[in-house]
Fold this sequence. Notes:
Helix content is 51%, strand content 0%. The chain is an all-alpha fold. The chain has one domain (4-68).
Amino acid sequence: MPDPADLAEGFGQLVLDCALTQLRAVPKLPASNGNCLNACGEKIAYDQHFCCSECRDDFERIQAAKRRNGVL
């Protein structure tokens, strides 16, 4: 039978692995509605998600922060 310290270590590693998996997971973008997903107000083509690379980078940074904080 495993020692309680070994069980605790195994559980701690499992929790860490789950947290890292969630941080690395990149959710799919919602369907485009003709506006930049970063809410800058720019109209874009329906096959695009962002008006420029700066808006894309800003959106990804905000989404990563939300995932870290458990909001997403």
